[in-house]
Amino acid sequence: MQVQTLPTPPKFDGSALAVCRGLDRRAAGHVMAISSLRRKAAGETLFSEGDDADCIYEVVSGTLRLYKMLADGRRQMMGFPAAGHLLGLAPAGTHVYTAEALTDVTLCCYPRASFHRLVNDVPGLARRMWAVTSDELRFAQDQLLLLGRKSASEKLASFLLMLADQQDTDHLSLPMTRTDIADYLGLTIETVSRTVTKLKREKLIALPQVNAMDILDRDALEAMAAGESAEHF
Amino acid sequence: MQVQTLPTPPKFDGSALAVCRGLDRRAAGHVMAISSLRRKAAGETLFSEGDDADCIYEVVSGTLRLYKMLADGRRQMMGFPAAGHLLGLAPAGTHVYTAEALTDVTLCCYPRASFHRLVNDVPGLARRMWAVTSDELRFAQDQLLLLGRKSASEKLASFLLMLADQQDTDHLSLPMTRTDIADYLGLTIETVSRTVTKLKREKLIALPQVNAMDILDRDALEAMAAGESAEHF
DNA sequence: CGACCGTTTGAGATCCTTCAATACCAGTGG
DNA sequence: CCACTGGTATTGAAGGATCTCAAACGGTCG
Question: What is the distance between the alpha carbons of residues B48 and B96, in angstroms, rounded to a whole number?
Fold first, then answer.
């Protein structure tokens, strides 16, 4: 375990990592043995779409943005993973999206080659990876419904509720820009801005700062996110 | 070369199933032991969103449609799995989409409880499930880009190329209706129809029948699908 | 043939985008 | 202290891609 002597997590307890959840102490130790920590400053690129996937990453602290791009530059955000999320969940191949640091981040890095040896040796690890990947898939499928069939208001409501769930509070901080949000929801920055204003006017949310929002009427937001209305607001 | 002329596989060779790919003969035998075949006629429902996921399914023959719905009935297609595809790729929980038979289908059914015992016992099986789920995830992420950022023409081009890939020919058969296609691409039936007409007019495709299309200019379709144009056609 | 169902085509409406101007905010330097 | 600057967010007006509503078309099947 080469995890000692780090400025921020004063003591880094590897066994608390998400990959290891559900594994016993001994197995978790094996996983930790191949891991190393890595830091990126806000704005830096962790890897790009098409890069050889040499590592599986786990976010330890901070927030990333993941996106894919079309030939002419149109961008689709895939997510904003924060602490506990895993990246590059494929047994092999190349990265299918670009990962950039949204804030300063700390990551735990598992080299793919060693990781695969472990997957064969450590009982329960492959099963764990299946579970984690399956959760990601479920999430992506919810996002398909959002992008394909929800209106701008419904998209934003869904997004804010997702953030609330992730941050475990109704006082949200938004580390990403409006452009990032727009590219996540399949909208333009102006539509996001207008929709935020509308939700604010309707007293469903409040904006203490530009990059912070409070959820005022969770029930209404949830109804909206679920598409419970013929008039899509 | 699909030259055999088999109406349906007269003898069912389980070891050819997708779950088993990469497993040795003995391991594949264990998996086959818990499986059972199941048939559904076109239009029947295999399971519904929210149902308890008691089985993992593999499509043996025919095509399904998978979809999620919003409260007011708006529908988003998740895919049209055909032979070789797996369904219900989560270690536990409930189904997150509805699965209906588009054509008559044969499925191989692995009861979840027994399957999980196997996952712990058969080396390589959990790893295989991870790989399969990870492929699904990758596919879903491509679809996110499509739904969030592509124009109607680009969506249709992408869809046709995906079918060509799946069917391994440029002479496509379309077992699904225009409504199904619309719900897959996040469009309306009328827009799908108009876009098909446009691609036909531009000689990128031909329509020998309503439910069949020929790809005439694959390069142009691929450029279109990749978003290689400022004017989105 | 005629009814039925899915598809195509047309005309008008709408949500979202585009283009453009304005506002806000933090940092910098006069 | 305040003007200036650059970056991001908001607001406005006009346009456009897609949707909605409606009619016509075209195969299939009794």
Answer: 8
Q: Is residue A3 part of a domain?
A: no
Mutate to test the interface with B, among A76, A78, A129, A144 (most CBs of B within 10 A): A144
Query: Hey, how many other C-beta atoms are within 10 angstroms of the C-beta on A148?
Result: 26
Contact A39, A71 (CB under 8 A): no
Query: Which domain, by its residues, includes A121?
Result: 14-146
Residue A30 near residue A116, CB atoms below 8 Å? no
pLDDT number for residue B11: 53
Q: The tokens 């699908």 sit on which residue? A: B225
Instruction: In whole angstroms, give the CA distance from residue A163 to residue A227.
Output: 18
Evaluate whether A168 touches B96 at the Cβ level (below 8 Å): no
A132 and A170 in a single domain? The answer is no
Contacts of A125 (CB under 8 A, 6+ apart): A19, A23, A27, A31, A118, A119
CA distance A9 to chain B (A): 31
Residue nearest to nucleotide C25 (CA to C1'): A210
Partner residues linked to A46 by β-bridges: none
Q: What is the pLDDT of residue A87?
A: 95
Pick out residues whose CB falls under 7 Å from strand D: A 177-179, 189-190, 192-194, 196-197, 207, 210-211; B 151-153, 186-188, 190-191, 210, 232
B116 close to A161: Cβ distance less than 8 angstroms: no
**Percent of residues, chain A, with pLDDT higher than 70:** 91
When comparing pLDDT for B39 and A12, which is higher?
B39
Give me the helix-helix angle, A25-33 and A112-121, nearest 10°: 160
The alpha-carbon gap from A90 to the nearest alpha carbon of chain B, in Å, equals 5
**In which order are the strands placed within the sheet that holds A55-61?**
A36-40, A105-111, A55-61, A86-87
SS3 B223: helix
Mean pLDDT of B39-58: 95
| Number of domains into which chain B is organized | 2
Is pTM beyond 0.90 here?
yes
Asked which of A127, A146, A165 is the last residue of a domain, the reply is A146
Q: Which residue has the higher pLDDT, A24 or A2?
A: A24
